[in-house]
Amino acid sequence: MRYISTRGQAPVLGFKAATLAGLASDGGLYVPEAWPRLSEAAIADLAGRSYAETAAIVLAPFIGDALDPATLRELCETAYGRFAHPAVTPLVQLDGQHWLLELFHGPTLAFKDVALQLLGLLFERFLAGGDRHLTIVGATSGDTGSAAIEAVANRAHIDIFMLYPDGRVSDVQRRQMTTVDAPNAHSIAIDGDFDTAQALVKALFADRAFADRVGLAAVNSINWARLAAQVVYYFYAAVRLGAPGRPVAFSVPTGNFGDVFAGYVAACMGLPVARLIVATNVNDILHRALARGDYSAGTVAPTATPSMDIQVSSNFERLLFDLHGRDAGTLAGVMRGFEATRAMAIPEPVRARAGLFSSARIDHAAMVEAMRWAHGAGTILDPHSAIGLAAARAAGLPREVPLVTLATAHPAKFPEAVTSAIGTAAPLPARLGALMEGREHVTHLPATLDVIREFVGTRTRVAA
Ligand SMILES: Cc1ncc(COP(=O)(O)O)c(C=O)c1O
Ligand SMILES: N[C@@H](CCOP(=O)(O)O)C(=O)O
């Protein structure tokens, strides 16, 4: 499989090079040159397979000759052997129509582990035997940071620097990053919001001399491999609910548009997806974009769902690329316009091509109501997953369509929000028992490109 940039000016790469590159050198995002297809028979054949087997089959066309099939299968077995549930991503039924897809049974209790456990192994495999060093710089609104650090801590040929908005992640999320004591892991608290952190990461990639010197790499969903790994659970869940014979709908709590874009990729590959519901909190740029073509970034409002407090959604560029007929020249102009003004009007004929998606903006009261409803049905939800469930319940889909809400984080990551909604908290799983006592390692820096570049450039062990 070959990968092209959404902006058309970067080299075409294979899977290994695209994984190590992260962001394309022209500022665009890598996407497959064409969507691979799984036949109806191949999808039906996924029934009864383990998560790791399913992953190896679904990922194979994206990986091409970058790994032989036995190695891919072995990496998937290793990555998903680290999950606390035997089904890896179990489905839980809530009522006659609604299901939860629990994506939080990995080491850091959020859906990010599903992709990052594998990505850590891919990095290691692709670096093996060479003298290349990677300097990962990422942005996190809470969950990517700890999942990425967990995936690469103590690796000899990798350094990782995670930028997070100071005071805008939960205590558990922050401690999951900052209590890691590893020579290659750096948690950096910056002034500002997630969008500021993400813009700094992209600006570092845009400095090609710096990026090449340190071997800059990405763990955010700007890295194609992250998204590819997230496509798997759409197949895994849908097949358990009757696909390919029966279409299944998904509701996805959304921020950077990575998780729901992975669902779109599954549909492009042939999975019968009835609907993709994009559920936002009050930071609703994606809802406005899909409902009325208004993709304009306001300021980020802090909410009880910090990981979704995002107004510039990186992966929306990947959808816009398809909506613009994969015309990279046009899209490059559109994105340059957005970067200059932070606003974009999506013309009606372009928006009309996004018919698989619907969207909903869920406010705090509706989120709390969904947490209480789920609690009544026997489940404690985290607030992000509750945003997804609230949107699912409001969608009005025919009762015969199974509707799966992606449960993206464990409720123990957000004890205050959960207790305030339902009067009880979910305990931290035993394996995270000492988290609240550990010493924190964090550097506070201003959100200034020069300062961040200097810090990363002098701390990375690339030249050591
Ligand atoms: C718990 C949780 N839910 C939902 C999201 C939103 O996912 P995405 O950014 O892929 O849209 C995030 C962050 O990415 C998250 O951490
Ligand atoms: N919500 C994320 C923010 C970054 O998203 P990503 O999927 O692009 O890594 C977080 O919690 O860190």
UniProtKB/TrEMBL annotation:
Keywords: Amino-acid biosynthesis, Lyase, Pyridoxal phosphate, Threonine biosynthesis. It catalyses: O-phospho-L-homoserine + H2O = L-threonine + phosphate. InterPro entries: Ser/Thr_deHydtase_PyrdxlP-BS, Thr_synth_N, Thr_synth_N_sf, Thr_synthase-like, Threonine_Synthase, TrpB-like_PALP, TrpB-like_PALP_sf. This is Threonine synthase. SUPFAM superfamilies: Tryptophan synthase beta subunit-like PLP-dependent enzymes. Its cofactor is pyridoxal 5'-phosphate. The keyword Lyase applies. The keyword tRNA-binding does not apply. Pfam families: PALP, THR4_C, Thr_synth_N. Residues 2-80 form the Threonine synthase N-terminal domain. Residues 87-341 form the Tryptophan synthase beta chain-like PALP domain. It comes from Sphingomonas morindae. Belongs to the threonine synthase family. Gene3D superfamilies: 3.40.50.1100, Threonine synthase, N-terminal domain (3.90.1380.10). Pathway: Amino-acid biosynthesis; L-threonine biosynthesis; L-threonine from L-aspartate: step 5/5. Its EC number is 4.2.3.1. GO terms for molecular function: threonine synthase activity.
